[in-house]
């Protein structure tokens, strides 16, 4: 599956990592659901999604914390570009 295909799904994907489900939720306007999905997942990928979510809500300080936990630099791309970058990385792995 590609990032574009993930975004286009009409219902949440199944048999995928929680991090991918959270990205789908975020793309479909469910910030709270996406946050709840990754909140307790202890992986660098979940921290990266978590960082993206806090950046999306405008909480830059919290986003920086999560980027650090993810081992990722603070993102300067547009939110859509970052979403696609994270999705592509997760769907590849």
Overview of the structural elements:
By secondary structure, the chain is mainly alpha-helical. The chain has one domain. It is 69% helix and 0% strand. The chain contains 6 helices and no strands. α2 packs antiparallel against α3 and α2 packs parallel to α4. The longest helix has 14 residues. It is globular, with a radius of gyration of 12 Å. It starts with a helix and ends with a helix.
Quickly list its features.
93 residues; mainly alpha; 69% helix
Class based on secondary structure composition and strand pairing: mainly alpha
For the record, the count of structural domains works out to: 1
Largest sheet: none
Query: What is the number of helical segments per DSSP (H or I, 4+ residues)?
Result: 6
> Would you list the SSEs in sequence order as H and E?
HHHHHH
SSE order and pairing:
Layout: H1 3-8, H2 18-27, H3 31-39, H4 44-57, H5 60-70, H6 79-92
Helix pairs in contact: 2-3, 2-4, 2-6, 3-4, 4-5, 4-6
Question: What does this entry show, briefly?
Answer:
With 93 residues, the chain is mainly α. Helix content is 69%, strand content 0%. The chain has helices at 3-8, 18-27, 31-39, 44-57, 60-70, 79-92.
